[in-house]
TrEMBL record:
NCBIfam families for this protein: vanZ_1 (NF037970)
UniProt-recorded name of the protein: Uncharacterized protein
Natural source organism: Zooshikella ganghwensis
Record keywords: Membrane, Transmembrane, Transmembrane helix
Segments traversing the membrane: 43-62, 67-84, 96-120
């Protein structure tokens, strides 16, 4: 039942992104986008929910490579967010903004923590271990990037 809920959320997000790209947002979503910072909130929630739903759904499929698959989903979503934002330069009713891109990245990071915390909870069994596991994983990734 939970996976069905995430599937419905995924479909809703894809529909909203499609409507935004076509310039045909429903009135309620258009009003949300028009308040100050509403488009940033939209980017944060859209990219964050994409990584959240894909991350949760992939946890049940790939049992052996769970943490790798969660990180891979986050990287692929970040690539998609970058592509989607840079492609807005060529659509006359859309505008490119680095702030939108950063808010999408923040959504990926903050909502992407949830599947990795679930993996750590399954591995270690308590919530403090999950926090330290997540921080340790992120620090390791930063040091790997710095070494290269």
């Amino acid at each position: 039942m939970i996976k069905f809920g995430f599937f419905v959320l995924s479909c809703l997000i894809v529909w909203i992104i499609y409507c935004a790209e076509q310039g045909t947002l429903p009135y309620v979503l258009y009003r949300v986008y028009k308040f100050p910072g509403g488009d940033k909130l939209g980017h944060f929630l859209a990219m964050g929910c994409i990584v959240l739903t894909l991350g949760i759904n992939i946890l049940g499929v790939l049992r052996k490579w769970r943490i790798f698959s969660v990180c891979l989903v986050a990287v692929i979503t970040a690539i998609y967010a970058t592509y989607a934002e840079f492609s807005q330069q060529y659509i006359f009713y859309r505008t490119f903004s680095y702030y939108d891109l950063v808010s999408g990245y923040l959504g990926i990071v903050f909502l992407g923590m949830i599947p990795s915390i679930l993996v750590a909870q399954a591995r270690y069994g308590n919530e403090w271990a999950t926090v330290f596991y997540w921080l340790n994983l992120r620090v390791k990734l930063v040091f790997i990037k710095l070494e290269n």
